[in-house]
Amino acid sequence: MRSRADAHRKQASGATRRILQRMIVLGIDPGLANTGYGVVARDGAHLAALDGGVIETRAGVPQERRLADIHAAIDALLAEHEPDVVALEELYFGQNVRTAFAVGHARGAVMLAAGQRGVPCASYTPQKVKSAVCGNGRAPKEQVARMVQALLALPQTPASDHASDALAVAICHVNGAPLSGSVARALQTAEAVLVR
């Protein structure tokens, strides 16, 4: 029986070499009030946005209820799109520690939903995402939105910064996944040789 991952791979010229052809990534820009999401598919060199938007929770609602709502919405996205991986923006401790903790709770709700479905998670700093999408780790949000629009051939920039950031996180993972996979395999091989 072939695994789902095998179904996304195509045999290359070598007996053991494989090229990843199709990948679906659910990108997340976590937040308690607004969790941005973006689903990006890569088929060969072609990128396409399958979905994107914002999961909103209301202030004044108990935090546990808001987190449950985020979890339920992410679970529904995982069921609908069956991504290969969930890519999240890493927690950034800026000036407001209280906000950072709320973002951390939202990340936890997302990761729990992914873990319950056996979907791996990857995290990227905001600077890494901006560098991957714009070539500049300090790019402003407007530039990120324009690059997301261009890379995904969208008719206009995403309506929300949160959705735009989530799509950027997904693009960051999709473009870096082949390299990071090769590096991980090389490290595993080197470790196995050292253990012998």
Properties at a glance:
single chain, alpha/beta, Nucleotidyltransferase, domain 5, five-stranded mixed beta sheet, two-stranded antiparallel sheet, disordered N terminus
Specify the CATH homologous superfamily: Ribonuclease H-like superfamily/Ribonuclease H
CATH architecture: 2-Layer Sandwich
Count the domains. 1
Extended strand count: 7
Characterization of this structure:
It is built from 6 helices and 7 strands; from the N terminus they run αβββββαβαβααα. It has 196 residues and is of the alpha/beta class. The chain has one domain: Ribonuclease H-like superfamily/Ribonuclease H (Nucleotidyltransferase, domain 5).
What's this entry about, in short?
The chain is α/β, with parallel strands linked by helices and 196 residues long.
List the SSEs and their pairings.
Layout: H1 4-7, E1 9-11, E2 18-20, E3 22-29, E4 34-43, E5 46-56, H2 63-81, E6 85-89, H3 97-116, E7 121-124, H4 126-134, H5 141-151, H6 161-195
Parallel strand pairs: 3-6, 6-7
Antiparallel strand pairs: 1-2, 3-4, 4-5
